[in-house]
Design a protein that fits this description.
Blueprint (H helix, E strand, L loop, with lengths): L2 H30 L1 E5 L2 E2 L5 H15 L5 H11 L7 E4 H10 L6 H8 L15 E6 L3 H12 L7 E8 L6 H10 E2 L3 E2 L4 E4 L4 E4 L2 E7 L16 E5 L7 H4 L7 E6 L25 E3 L3 H17 L1 E11 L25 E3 L3 H8 L6 E9 L5 E9 L5 H14 L6 E4 L16 E4 L4 E3 L2 E8 L3 H15 L5 E2 L5
Parallel strand pairs: 1-3, 3-22, 4-5, 4-11, 5-10, 11-12, 12-13, 14-16, 18-19
Antiparallel strand pairs: 1-2, 6-7, 8-9, 9-10, 14-17, 15-16, 17-21, 19-21, 20-21
Length: about 475
């Protein structure tokens, strides 16, 4: 047999194993509310090729490709356990097993590594928590996709309603169509139908009531069978406690804002300060996409090297608050055509750092340039560190953080030599460290951080909603602290 035949036979074998993984992953999700991950990437509803590509991606962060032949035995071992709701990373199971020297079998090691998800330690499955989206723009529709995706087990979060202003024409049909098709993020994964008689969008079996209102104080959500819900305001119209409190109507227990909060509204970056949310806090902000992109790597650098001062320059995709063609705009420069110009503007991300990282004493400044791409931005983080280091040490630290730390869902890492912005459309991380662009000299480090300012940010918002709803299930093996 030739080398080429050997390679093709190996590929077919791995395809067969990946095919056999799909029904196991699906059953664990539906029947036990267990999400199977591979180095923080969900394998739920993935295709054969997608599973194989995710395994191959492990070489970017672990240094070598991970094979399904290594992870499949751990997946099989999980089926023998009485698991409770959890997230289980079979990539981390395989990696830690390889480094373990206790001579345990795969079954014994797996049972030990996920002990907190079985027996007396396991969480009980709970009823789903209602979620309402107030607004249905770019972020609102991506949140809807994510919430529908995560409703597969019937537990956790359940999108019950969308609140919008009524528009002329076939309002419901057009809104459903925008959910079904997206020029950047592609087709919705599943089926969508519309019941105009009841003003309902049915997406993958989820009945989502469309409520028409111009004023949040006029809505009684209990009339629609919605109770104790979390409302996500993605309009940005109200950003202080007084304005957001208008949403605290019958049926609504908490309000989450998808923009930087003002005044005493807590600004939360999941993975960094989400554990500071008080149980009785009714109003919180998820800060901005750029704040979510820079705060996790900033914390990672502060923890290891110390940060004395820094500046962030964001090269940001254009957004809907700019004009397609030159026209009046209340803000400087934003009236000029977004798809034809680079536009200097301001960013509040640097000043928001202090809310998410109050212990960071370093002064962080920031500025921004909007550029003619529709999605994915890059933050250039220029830091003066508290000690001298090397490029190799910084990259090794950030690689390890992306792989094993509590920030592994927020920070990704790429060594791809030809990476460009469109490669990161659909990334579920808050930011991706570009290893090839990183510069370090003495006590100065410059990090280039890609981020999908739409989808990656939406994933961070959903994580916050999961946390405040009580359905943020533990991950095993537990990340290193």
């Amino acid at each position: 047999m030739t080398v080429n035949e050997d390679l093709f036979t190996d590929w077919k074998n791995r395809e067969e194993i990946a095919e056999s993984m799909i029904p196991i992953i699906g059953r664990l999700q539906r029947e036990r509310d267990v999400t199977v991950l591979l180095h923080s990437r969900s394998l739920v509803n993935r295709s054969v090729v997608s599973i194989l590509k995710t395994h191959r991606f492990a070489r970017q962060i672990a240094g070598e490709e991970l094979s399904v032949t290594e992870t499949f035995p751990f997946l099989q071992a999980l089926t023998t356990l009485d698991l409770g709701p959890s997230q289980i990373d079979i990539g981390m199971l395989a990696a830690t097993y390889k480094a373990d020297d206790h001579g345990l079998s795969v079954e014994e090691f797996t049972a030990q590594a996920v002990a907190g998800a079985v027996g007396a330690e396991k969480r009980e499955r709970r009823d789903s928590r209602d979620v309402v989206l107030y607004g249905f723009g770019r972020i609102g529709r991506l949140l809807a996709r994510l919430l529908i995706e995560k409703a597969g087990s019937g537990n956790g979060l359940r999108l019950r309603a969308i609140v919008v202003r009524r528009s002329a024409g076939e309002d419901l049909v057009k809104r459903a169509s925008l959910l079904r098709r997206d020029s950047i993020h592609g087709q919705f994964h599943g089926t969508i139908t519309v019941d105009e008689a009841t003003s309902t969008i049915i997406a993958n079996g989820n009945a989502i009531k469309v409520i028409y209102s111009d004023d949040p104080t006029t809505v009684d959500y209990t009339e629609y069978g919605i109770n104790d819900a979390i409302l996500v305001d993605n309009t940005g119209k109200w950003r202080d406690r007084e304005g957001l409190s208008k949403h605290l109507r019958p049926g609504i227990a908490k309000v989450v804002l998808t923009a930087p909060g003002k005044g005493d509204v807590p600004n939360i970056v999941h993975g960094v300060n989400h554990d500071t949310i008080k149980p009785d806090e009714q109003i919180i902000s998820c800060a901005s996409c750029t704040t979510n992109a820079i705060v996790p790597p900033l914390k990672a650098m502060e923890d290891e090297f110390g940060v004395l001062r820094g500046h962030v320059e964001t090269v940001h995709s254009f957004t809907n608050d700019q004009n397609l063609l030159d026209n009046y705009h209340g803000a400087d420069r934003r009236g000029r055509s977004a798809p034809l110009n680079m536009v200097i503007t301001e960013t509040g991300a640097a000043s928001a750092v202090s809310k998410a990282l109050p212990d960071l004493k370093a002064k962080i400044t920031g500025s921004s340039i909007r550029v003619p791409v529709p999605d994915v931005s890059i933050a250039i983080l220029n830091l003066q560190l508290a000690r001298e280091t090397t490029r190799e040490e910084v990259l090794e630290h950030l690689r390890e953080v992306s792989l094993t730390s509590p920030l592994k869902r927020q920070i990704d890492f790429t060594t791809a030599p030809d990476a460009v912005s469109s490669d990161f459309i659909g990334s579920r991380h808050a930011s991706i460290v570009d290893a090839g662009a990183t510069k370090v000299e003495g006590d100065n480090a410059i990090l280039y951080l890609w981020y999908d300012n739409e989808f990656g940010y939406s994933c961070q918002v959903v994580r916050v909603v999961q946390h405040v709803s009580g359905v943020e299930y533990p991950t095993f093996p537990a990340p290193a602290v």
